[in-house]
């Protein structure tokens, strides 16, 4: 399959990729009465729209932290851009209607970063056009297994494609005769590790044997304006190893990935075309309400 990637970016760092796919020509047929084989015809153009962190508002520690419009207009300003075969974002929090976070035990909950969106907010994200989400990050697990399980249940019910937890390392699906694999990585507990690059490469290589397009997402690197530039080294933030995103991105492309989409630093970072494959090292924040710093 032949691929050509075109990227354009907007102020909120929406990456719009056009991947041209040319299928193999059909084999010559003899003049017999045997029916010709059915050859799968791929689309000429695939569009991938990718954004960074999505957290529409957390009801923890209080419902007063939710947006005044109950998030229904969260994507109104960018509605026309969220159209593509793949519309991707990083789900920076879980879906859960109630409960406390163990990470905030003994702390002032108003200064503890734990995010749980009401279950109904998932429908707002779906209605906006998103169909692929990463759940490989440090906030999907803010409310432990209860939050992770409920999030998976909600995403399944709305037919999202998603990946990134240990029990859901990848998703394989087909859209308009094109077969995709999506996998996601992070340095956090219960996520598929960004730090084990060899293991990530093995997974990508196996997926590439089964599909036409492999999309890789990662949550990694330090956070904030001090980390706007890719260091090409292992990044440490608050004593936590956040991975070497440069080595990771190159490694998974070497293994067969077609697109690599990064998030986590809460600021935008460089993009790169490596071996004719697109890498976004950080898509930054996209739609985040409340306890998020938007400075970069």
What does this structure look like?
It contains four helices and 17 strands. It starts with a strand and ends in an 8-residue tail after the last strand. 45% of the residues are buried. Helices cover 15% and strands 27% of the residues. It has 296 residues and is α/β, with parallel strands linked by helices. Strands 1, 2, 3, 4, 7, 8 and 17 form a seven-stranded mixed sheet that branches. It has a six-stranded mixed sheet with strand order 9-10-11-14-16-15, with helices on one face. The protein has one domain (5-22, 42-288): 4-Layer Sandwich (Purple Acid Phosphatase, chain A, domain 2), CATH 3.60.21.
Secondary-structure blueprint:
Elements: E1 5-8, E2 15-20, E3 45-55, E4 86-91, E5 94-95, E6 116-117, H1 121-128, E7 132-134, H2 144-157, E8 161-163, E9 170-175, E10 178-185, H3 197-208, E11 213-219, E12 236-237, E13 240-241, H4 245-254, E14 259-263, E15 271-274, E16 277-280, E17 285-288
Parallel strand pairs: 3-4, 3-17, 4-7, 5-6, 7-8, 10-11, 11-14, 14-16
Antiparallel strand pairs: 1-2, 2-3, 9-10, 12-13, 15-16
Helix pairs in contact: 3-4
Give a concise summary.
The chain is an alpha/beta fold and 296 residues long. 15% of the residues lie in helices and 27% in strands. It has a single domain (5-22, 42-288), classed as Purple Acid Phosphatase, chain A, domain 2, CATH 3.60.21.
